């Protein structure tokens, strides 16, 4: 048996945030710090993405924050100028990655050498998690109109179902990061199911 080689490292700018971006999710940001304006220009010029990582220590603004090692690649899909004059961007979550090493530029922009994870293969939702499909339908109806036209087949994919639930349920940031890091989509569904009783009204 031949050992599987690791993916080559890819260098990209990192954007630490106080929230988790999941594959397939949409991210809206207002950009005002020069370092992140540079990031947007770089991505627009080269057609590349940037890495979104949960902040473990620090803040989104100011000194470089300590990011989680596992994050999600974001690709900019739209730009706009807000009423306040700030640049707004919309980005789409893609593949997950692990940061092998990172460094901060003089202006505080983090750059990382990352190993991109392969996308999770489609996997049917086991019958014991059918309730999660119903819960997601209700959440989307009230909270996420962008998913209302999702095909029925999406709800039957364990990965899509788990990431959408992790995005919409009121999990704390640490729990969201845990859901992002799990390598098994069915295990993700099992942990989400076990968390659900916490959100049920007495």
From TrEMBL:
It comes from the Bacteria. Transmembrane segments: none annotated. Residues 9-200 form the Lon N-terminal domain. It holds the Pfam family LON_substr_bdg. PANTHER family: ATP-DEPENDENT PROTEASE LA (LON) DOMAIN PROTEIN. This is Peptidase S16. It comes from Rhodanobacter thiooxydans.
């Amino acid at each position: 048996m031949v050992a599987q080689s690791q993916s080559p490292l890819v260098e990209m700018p990192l954007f630490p945030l106080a929230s988790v971006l999941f594959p397939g999710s949409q991210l809206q940001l207002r950009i005002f710090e020069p370092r992140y304006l540079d990031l947007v220009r770089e991505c627009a010029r080269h057609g590349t993405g940037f890495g979104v990582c949960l902040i473990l220590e620090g803040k989104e603004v100011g000194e470089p924050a300590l990011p989680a090692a596992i994050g999600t690649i974001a690709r900019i899909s739209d730009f706009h100028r807000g009423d306040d004059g700030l640049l707004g961007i919309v980005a789409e979550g893609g593949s997950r990655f692990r940061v092998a090493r990172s460094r901060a530029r003089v202006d505080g922009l983090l750059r990382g050498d990352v190993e991109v994870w392969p996308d999770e293969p489609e996997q049917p939702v086991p019958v014991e998690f059918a309730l999660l499909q119903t819960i997601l339908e209700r959440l989307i109806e009230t909270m996420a109109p962008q998913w209302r036209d999702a095909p029925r087949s999406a709800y039957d994919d364990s990965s899509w179902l788990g990431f959408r639930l992790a995005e919409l349920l009121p999990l704390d940031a640490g729990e969201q990061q845990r859901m992002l890091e799990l390598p098994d989509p069915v295990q993700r569904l099992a942990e989400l199911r076990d968390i659900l009783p916490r959100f049920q009204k007495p």
